[in-house]
């Protein structure tokens, strides 16, 4: 995450956190313009901290800055998605393998509960939120701080793509729920090879869905 000036009572950092949340909750669609003035009014702040926050979000690749036009929610190209999902597949596969080897019984039970919650969700925003938590908990259970840091760095970009995918295809949520169960079953069985295969397959299917949603 980009470093922000902590001065002026941390207003820039507050604006960053607020706008990041708005973006990741799916209030904007890919290609939508992000108005500095509207955000300043909404957050009850001057334009200066909002401007700093928008610059930081652009540095974090959560927004695109188009010179002379302003900020926009990114439209990912096929090449962007390939880069993102190639890296995600390797990291998520490694996380699932590590979780199968090192997760506690309590962590497996928590994953099972999250999987059931995800399966019961009908709103794409809820599924996106609980799906992100499911994957984050698998990464934590792998007991590899460097792996977790790498996935955390990708998490926001992945979240933007996941929201586009789930919003565009109602059936994709049910497919993803089944894929989550396959990953969980392999972790619970303490089968690292099967867990890695299931996680990689899930990411590949997510890539396919994202291509259909974002590229058409």
From TrEMBL:
Q: Please list the residue ranges annotated as the HTH gntR-type domain.
A: 9-76
Q: Which GO terms describe its molecular function?
A: DNA binding; DNA-binding transcription factor activity
Q: Report the Gene3D superfamilies cross-referenced here.
A: GntR ligand-binding domain-like, Winged helix-like DNA-binding domain superfamily/Winged helix DNA-binding domain
Which superkingdom heads the taxonomic lineage of this protein's source?
Answer: Bacteria
Assigned keywords, A-Z: DNA-binding, Transcription, Transcription regulation
| Entry protein name | GntR family transcriptional regulator
Q: Which SMART domains match?
A: FCD (SM00895), HTH_GNTR (SM00345)
Give the InterPro entries listed for this entry.
Answer: GntR_C (IPR011711), TF_FadR/GntR_C (IPR008920), Tscrpt_reg_HTH_GntR (IPR000524), WH-like_DNA-bd_sf (IPR036388), WH_DNA-bd_sf (IPR036390)
Its signal peptide is none
